[in-house]
Design goal:
With 281 residues, the chain is α/β, with parallel strands linked by helices. It contains ten helices and ten strands. It has an eight-stranded parallel sheet with strand order 3-4-5-6-7-8-9-10. Strands 1-2 form a two-stranded antiparallel sheet. Helix 2 runs parallel beside helix 3. It is globular, with a radius of gyration of 18 Å. 46% of the residues are buried. Bound molecules: adenosine-2'-5'-diphosphate (A2P). The site of adenosine-2'-5'-diphosphate has 18 residues, from helix 9.
């Protein structure tokens, strides 16, 4: 298996990224520097993570050239709209200390479950992303937490198909309708919480298969995403586990085991849904 995916516009993206959400609360920069030391070059942040400055600093201080990194950020759900998205993009670049991003995403398709005019807001926001892309300020553009009806709204009213859709994805919560719909359109799916925020690691099937393949349950989840064609963005605060989570190219999950993993009943869902109030789990 290759260690990169290729987006619809030809841009190569490292096949495993580092999720920086709540990297370690107050210690983001040290965690991100450690992730870079462990070999991560694909860093996934967002305005809402409030750590873009820490990511930028860790990147600069690593001594690794900027072009070797793949940096993603996202416009937050209460900043949707054409002008505010352009402003947010500039703000993210400034905080990250870079003059371009590799990928910019709409973080959620609507500000909250009560906002009825989300369709117009998404279209205006997407037009801002299209303009940023056309002016080469960002190498690729996409969305996050978009279900088929959110994607359809963009497809009907805008011209560029998103290159990425970042979704919660792990054994026990695969969002098959959204993943299949995205993949049929050539949209690269990325997985946030690919190990289900560690909630799925005690699942007996995962423990059994981890033993069979002589890997950890977390490595199994990350490999599972890759074999589904989905790009995992695991988070960890430990150097050892960061390294482990990148070491997923030396084994292959057999088809029968993939099917078992795919058909697990729902486990480990975060409680987040783009059209509903958050469910406390
Ligand atoms: P820690 O920071 O102590 O490593 P997700 O990326 O699915 O949201 O999951 C993140 C959670 O999974 C964190 O609590 C993290 O804890 C834990 N985690 C990350 N990698 C591993 C691993 N290799 N083994 C066990 N737990 C892990």
């Amino acid at each position: 298996m290759r260690h990169t995916f290729t987006l619809a516009n030809g841009v190569e993206i490292p096949a495993v990224g580092f999720g920086t959400y709540k990297a370690a609360d107050d210690n983001d920069e040290a965690i991100i520097s450690e992730a870079i030391r462990q070999g991560y070059r694909h860093l996934d942040t967002a305005a809402f993570y409030f750590n873009e400055e820490a990511v930028g600093k860790a990147v600069r201080e690593s001594g690794v050239p900027r072009e070797e990194f793949f940096l993603t950020s996202k416009v937050w759900r209460d900043r949707l709209g054409y002008d505010s998205t352009l402003r947010e993009f500039e703000e993210s670049c400034k905080k990250l200390g870079t003059d371009y991003l590799d990928l910019y995403l709409i973080h959620w398709p609507r500000p909250d479950d009560l906002t009825a005019e989300w369709k117009d807001l998404d279209v205006e926001t997407w037009k801002a992303l299209e303009d940023l892309y056309k002016s080469k300020k960002v190498r690729a553009i996409g969305v996050s937490n978009f279900l088929p009806h959110h994607l359809n709204n963009l497809l009907e009213r805008t011209s560029i198909i998103p290159m990425v859709n970042q979704l919660e994805f792990h054994p026990g919560y695969m969002q098959k309708a959204a993943v299949d719909f995205s993949q049929r359109l050539g949209i690269q799916v990325e997985a946030w919480s690919p190990i289900g925020r560690a909630r799925v690691l005690q699942e007996p099937l995962l423990m059994e298969l981890a033993e069979k393949y002589q890997v950890s349950a977390a490595q199994l989840c990350i490999r599972f995403a890759l074999q589904c064609g989905v790009l995992p963005l695991p988070k960890s605060s430990s150097g050892e586990r960061m390294r482990q989570n990148l070491d997923v190219f030396g084994f292959n999950i057999e088809d029968d085991d993939m099917h078992q993993l795919m058909t697990l009943p729902q486990i480990g869902w975060s409680g987040e849904h783009p059209d509903r109030e958050r469910v406390a789990i």
